[in-house]
Amino acid sequence: GLYAELVKNRSFEFPQRFMGWNVFGNVTLMDDGPFERNPHYVRLGNSGHREKHTGIENEGFFGIGVKEGAEYRFSVWARGENQKLRIELIKNDTMEERQAFESKELTVNSKDWKQYEVILKSPRTEPKAHLRIFLESAGTVDLEHVSLFPVDTWKERKNGLRKDLVQALYDIKPGVFRFPGGC
């Protein structure tokens, strides 16, 4: 579609709350969230074992297509005191020991809901990458509105529209756009 969001079900509000997500470790779906219209969020807790991780992984829309050298803005609303997250782009269809091809650390440092952001830069092109988020510390952290957008969007707007599709539409100089369903 025109909207450049790459995460499927970013607020856990689909009828099947974890549609688009794989969960592992100590993950709990909560329903007293910070946004009235989006009450669901996930709580990541300590796995209880030093060799195991707690986290979530998003498949995107039939995979997350990333391009070599392109930057992607990861953002999330989160709360937790001094909790470390590892944000990864992974190649999911491999049995290699190391699936991640880009990763960044993010520290959540507030007991109140706050938006956090980090830029991921893909070192290679992957048509069906996944986004994985690990809890790296021993406490708990709450996550809501998980998002991944290309930095390069139409007119450089943050969380904007896909540049390639909108530019193609703009170039044909239409007199009127009509979207079924009534926009």
Q: What order do the helices and strands come in, and which of them pair?
A:
Blueprint: E1 21-24, E2 26-30, E3 41-45, E4 54-58, E5 64-66, E6 71-91, E7 100-121, E8 126-135, E9 140-150, H1 163-171
Antiparallel strand pairs: 1-4, 2-3, 3-9, 4-8, 5-8, 6-7, 6-8, 6-9
Helix and strand content put the structural class at: mainly beta
β-strand number: 9
| Poorly predicted sequence stretches spanning 5 or more consecutive residues | none
Which outline best applies? globular
CATH classification, class level: Mainly Beta
CATH topology name, in short, is Jelly Rolls
Largest sheet: 9 strands, antiparallel
Give the number of domains. 1
Provide a count of the helices. Answer: 1
